[in-house]
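Weekly sync, protein design subgroup
Attendees: M.S., D.O., the rotation student, P.L. (late)

Item 1: inverse folding check
M.S. brought a backbone from last month's batch and wanted to see whether the design step gives back something sensible before we order anything. D.O. pointed out we never logged the input encoding, so this time it goes straight into the notes. Structure tokens as presented (184 positions):
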């Protein structure tokens, strides 16, 4: 249950904590099969992917896992993607011959991820795949081959489980639609 003042900012809970954790467990089983006998480097995209990364990493038991983080610019204070991607924090890890799995909160326009994938592929890894908890319909416009996708959601601005609006709501356990009056 979320606190009362936050509930007034949300119009609808799209995904409960149970649904999210259940789906992440399913994805983890797929990853364990696909990466059997290999070590996977999870690359979390700060800050939105913190919760997915944390739950996914702990759910992976049959493969060796390392974690690293990148921070890239995204929406700032607005709700529209600018298409401009800047590295704010780079990886500490050399990607040569590594199996890289990018962990993201959401694919919206796909601009961030397509740029990021290309950037990481240029560093000589053995493979680069994408795991995104959420995908919006606009993601279809640009070719994003995300191997693991948790949920397809409608084209609405959502918060919670790592996703923010102006840095708020990341700590909600569910994913919910932000009420337009909050950003209008
Ligand atoms: P894209 O480049 O349009 O795919 O946007 C990617 C980034 O925008 C995500 O990693 C999020 O940080 C942010 N984003 C996109 N849609 C939402 C949303 O509905 N709520 C919160 N953040 C979002």
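Designed sequence read out in the meeting:
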């Amino acid at each position: 249950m979320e606190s009362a003042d936050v509930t007034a900012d949300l119009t609808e809970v799209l995904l409960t904590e149970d649904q999210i954790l259940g789906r992440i467990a399913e994805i983890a089983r797929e990853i364990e099969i696909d990466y059997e006998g290999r070590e996977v480097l999870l690359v979390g995209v700060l800050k939105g992917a913190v919760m997915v990364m944390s739950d996914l990493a702990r759910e992976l038991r049959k493969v060796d896992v390392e974690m690293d983080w990148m921070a890239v610019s995204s929406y700032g204070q607005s709700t529209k993607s600018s298409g401009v991607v800047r590295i704010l924090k780079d990886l500490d890890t050399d990607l040569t011959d590594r199996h890289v799995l990018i962990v993201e909160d959401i694919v919206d326009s796909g601009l961030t991820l397509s740029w990021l994938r290309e950037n990481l592929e240029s560093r000589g890894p053995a493979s680069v795949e994408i795991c995104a908890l959420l995908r919006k319909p606009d993601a279809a416009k640009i070719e994003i081959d995300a191997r693991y996708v948790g949920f397809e959601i409608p084209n609405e601005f959502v918060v919670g489980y790592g996703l923010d609006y102006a840095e708020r709501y990341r700590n909600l356990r569910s994913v919910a639609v932000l009420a337009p009056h909050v950003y209008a």
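Discussion: The mean pLDDT is 91. The two ends are 26 Å apart (CA to CA).
Action: P.L. to compare against the previous round before Friday.
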